[in-house]
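Task 17 of the worksheet. Students: predict the tertiary structure of the chain below and write it out as structure tokens. Keep your answer in the requested format; marks are given for formatting as well as content.
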Amino acid sequence: MEACHGHGKEKESQDLPRVLLFKPPPDFHLFGDECFSSNKFKFLKAWESPLPLDQFLKTHAQSVEAILSSGGAPVTAETLRLMPAVRLVMTTSAGLNHIDIAECRRRGITVANTGNVFSEDVADLAVGLLIDLLRNISASDRFVKQWLRPRQAAEGDCYSLGIGSKLGGKRVGIVGLGSIGSLVAKRLDAFGCSISYNSRTKKPSVSYPFYSNVCELAANCDILIICCGLTAETHHMINKQVLSALGKEGVVINIGRGPIIDEQELVRCLVQGEIKGAGLDVFENEPDVPKELLALDNVVLSPHCAIFTWETFKDRQKLVVENLEAFFSNKPLLTKIVDND
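Model answer:
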């Protein structure tokens, strides 16, 4: 009887709809494979197959109805061509630059992301990078840890770090006043900063000054914080002209996507002192980081980890499962994509 019961459960699992995974999400490494588990669907893990990916996709072309993708596993037009039964692409990120949205629309494929699950944590890190940069926290930490005989250090040595800068009263320009940008503005408002913003359109409900031109925004702020998504329009939007407008006392923070900034130009400006500093959680060619940045005390770096809190990972897992279960139950998705900042 027990054997029959086990066989029945196995058959039941075989009958579940398939969700394709190209690569294991970070959650698998941290929480194990069961973190996205459900009795409503079954994962098909491409990395476990000995077959080349295109052959693997052709083998399962008619059985896969949904794809769960992370930023490290792009969903291209060619992928979708090989998977004609796919009706949903669910991503574990808020950003969509790794998904061919136009092709999904053309094929009538629904796309869902993680909505605002990450927004609080990303906004926190943006402010953290900024305070670190203005007050030389990371540079001071390195200075103290490199003291071989701290008590005998010359009294004036710490002045070599330079004097920090106050956050209150600074003019902050936010590029992309969406969910994350609005939370950054709210936090910096509390520090007494003066907020202005650039966005695709002016927000009628927002009282902050609006600049339709990002160069004009940069010219009228001390700090430029990049919070927008990566699209064809925003690629290298922060270029030589924008950085020049920001000026020698200007600071740039990027918690959006690396390629929004022309990284080569940013490095040149930092090395030559044409801007004051940068706080970067994202880079143009991840995981590669320009070696010039590593030697600069006026640069604070983090490894694209703005969302890395236990609470957010758990919230993301719950949301992903709920979206997939809603899809397979023909119910409305919780975070279906809508075009906005």
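Marker's comment: Residues 13-117+310-328 form a domain with the Rossmann fold fold (CATH 3.40.50.720). Residues 5-12 have pLDDT under 50 and may be disordered.
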